[in-house]
Design goal:
By secondary structure, this protein is an alpha+beta fold. The chain is about 45% helix and about 20% strand. It has a three-stranded mixed β-sheet with strand order 1-2-3.
Length: about 110
């Protein structure tokens, strides 16, 4: 999904991306962003990494505005909120360590 060349943006698309970044960072100042171009569906993806337990909180902040940009303005712009990978791995390891393996039934 990572482009070899920088994503080319129209001025309106850049404004929309800047607006969404501003909304996100107002609630999550530590947010990091990567811009990618993809084809399923085709468009520009603002990948947002935020260190919070539930990434749905990001969509709660920008969801209505994102729909307006997509539907009313026809911008192919999508937001993908992610948690930092090292935190996800640490959480999985913690779960594995605290959960005993399930025993298999003997037949």
């Amino acid at each position: 999904m990572k482009p070899e060349n920088p994503v080319r943006l129209t001025p309106r698309m850049q404004e929309a991306i800047d607006e969404l970044k501003g909304l996100i960072t107002a609630y999550f100042p530590q947010a990091a962003f990567v811009l990618e171009e993809a084809f399923d569906p085709e468009g520009v993806y603002l990948v947002t990494t935020v260190d919070i337990a539930d990434t749905d909180e990001v969509i709660d902040v920008i969801g209505d505005r994102l729909v307006e940009l997509q539907v009313d303005e026809g911008l192919p712009l999508y937001v993908t909120p992610l948690r930092p990978i090292d935190h996800v791995v640490a959480e999985l390891r913690k779960r594995e360590a605290s959960t005993p393996p399930a025993s298999l039934p003997l037949t």
